[in-house]
Design goal:
154 residues; alpha+beta; 7 strands; 7-stranded antiparallel β-sheet
Length: 154
């Protein structure tokens, strides 16, 4: 089972524009407001990106490469723990697909190629729902959520 890969798909609808949603993902000063992290890159295909904790001494939490970018509709990045940066087998892949939908935006986040029994997969299951809820809150109300709040045990 050690080499089994899994993926997750998250869909949310946001009263916003594709441009604002794309900007929220790629601009550090906006991502900080709903994620508590900054996504830092020049966003060119093949470029490095890093996920930097805004309030923790600028600690790098995740790293990867920009695989594809087509503003404001699509961004694809690889995703790994910094300790695994040199191990391509440990990298997962995240696609952000942004489409207009009935006066709103449909944001589909697909996170693939995760180790089925890994800590990263467990973190993804907990993390994406609150991050995407916070993104929606920020764009619709001007205020993100506390993504570091401890979830209620189920």
């Amino acid at each position: 089972m050690g080499n089994d890969k899994i993926g997750f798909v998250y869909v949310t609808y946001i009263r916003s524009t594709p441009e604002k949603v794309f900007e929220a993902i790629t601009r550090p000063e906006v991502a900080r407001q709903y994620w508590g992290h900054e996504n830092v890159s020049d966003w060119a295909p093949g470029s490095d990106w890093k996920h930097v904790r805004a309030d923790d001494g600028r600690a790098v939490r995740l790293v990867g490469k920009v695989v594809a970018i087509d503003p404001p509709t699509r961004l694809v990045i690889t995703w790994a723990d910094p300790s695994q940066a040199g191990n391509s087998d440990a990298h997962s892949r995240v696609s952000f697909d942004i489409a207009p939908y009935e006066g709103m935006v449909r944001l589909t986040v697909t996170h693939e190629e995760l180790q089925a029994d890994g800590e990263m997969a467990r973190g993804i299951q907990r993390g994406w729902p609150i991050v995407l809820s916070s993104l929606k809150s920020l764009l619709e109300t001007g205020q993100g959520m506390d993504v570091f709040a401890k979830p209620i045990a189920s």
